[in-house]
Amino acid sequence: xxxxxxxxxxxxxxxxxxxxxxxxxxxxxxxxxxxxxxxxxxxxxxxxxxxxxxxxxxxxxxxxxxxxxxxxxxxxxxxxxxxxxxxxxxxxxxxxxxxxxxxxxxxxxxxxxxxxxxxxxxxxxxxxxxxxxxxxxxxxxxxxxxxxxxxxxxxxxxxxxxxxxxxxxxxxxxxxxxxxxxxxxxxxxxxxxxxxxxxxxxxxxxxxxxxxxxxxxxxxxxxxxxxxxxxxxxxxxxxxxxxxxxxxxxxxxxxxxxxxxxxxxxxxxxxxxxxxxxxxxxxxxxxxxxxxxxxxxxxxxxxxxxxxxxxxxxxxxxxxxxxxxxxxxxxxxxxxxxxxxxxxxxxxxxxxxxxxxxxxxxxxxxxxxxxxxxxxxxxxxxxxxxxxxxxxxxxxxxxxxxxxxxxxxxxxxxxxxxxxxxxxxxxxxxxxxxxxxxxxxxxxxxxxxxxxxxxxxxxxxxxxxxxxxxxxxxxxxxxxxxxxxxxxxxxxxxxxxxxxxxxxxxxxxxxx
Length: 512
What we know:
Layout: H1 12-42, H2 63-74, H3 79-86, H4 94-105, E1 112-114, H5 126-138, H6 142-149, H7 177-187, E2 194-196, H8 199-210, H9 220-223, H10 239-247, H11 258-266, H12 273-283, H13 285-306, H14 309-338, H15 344-353, H16 363-372, H17 379-383, H18 390-402, H19 405-413, H20 418-429, H21 431-447, H22 450-455, H23 464-474, H24 477-511
Antiparallel strand pairs: 1-2
């Protein structure tokens, strides 16, 4: 029965009260949903926009923001390389951009480096994902790959591309099988992955090192119209050029370089690097947005699958927790309800007193007790300490007390045993409460972290929450938010599926 009758609802005071009540409910819903939406939105972002608290990432609607994110990803969040690329050929006709793309596809492998590598504050990148997928088609298992590469990777998700440093004077590529197969993979990379190793860029790095980052110290004859190191061009003569060639420029680029090849092909026009990046971001906007939005979530799923026992451990732990708590607590509550004694009140007070202390207080005593019994690193250590709950026993006893006594008297007249009345009368009528308590047991077992980490120190027994905590230690903010969103989905799904049972548990006692 509703609190306000149909006739009373028409009164102004009742309408105002109903409006205030619904407004309060809406505000409560917003304050609950908004943090989750913000967390889910943060999982769609990256290094360039991780501090943006808008619900919709800018790159999903703004092309300039998408281009900035694309360039940052291509040059691995190296701001100096990004500024140099943006200052190189920012405006060029489509014909010249097409010529530049064909030029990149024809360059030798030692004249360009693969872009989209993992940035220092990232755990994965576009190149790494592509390389790992390529290796999966070449090797049947990670053990076969480790044997071929003489490596110790845990899974394909931990394999990283070889390092390329063609712009270093004394660096030479290795002669391993991994490098030779890397060259096969590299040769098949499309144009957008190819970052040319230019003498212009190497001279900019050399000048920045030579003048210790102070652009004002660069001679005017060298600086020209440039306002920062990333805008410098290689001088045609002078002592600085001679020092650059002798101390910095690798011998492999002394006679033949990307710059000289492009100058012969284009007639001296600057490389349209910036124009090419802008055109690619515009033409491939849809695929780029999809890749950026799903990268963090894809990495989290791969991470969970890499530690595949975490899913099994968590599922088994939740099932055992639900079964034990729905076995021990109803039996204890039924006994207190059907067979009250003088000390029943004191027993309930004692059970409720256990709720007055934080769970962290009992962790160390529980750890020492379980260690004494030799139960560490077992599911028993996870399940047994939470098998009995003072709150659940108190709630169930109150519900059993509210059941009509006439039902039990009729059962006794028919000669039913107490166990039969418990199974046929009390427990069926208590299904809504059992559903609510099962949800509490699931949430408690699924979300536990500190206790699981303390009691179970063997990685093979770690639950999902412990692995996600380990991920947070190495992952940036955006990947962490994606991991928390993925971790929250099972609880949300279970809640939505069980909401009817929960509502019945709330309404049914009131109807009695």
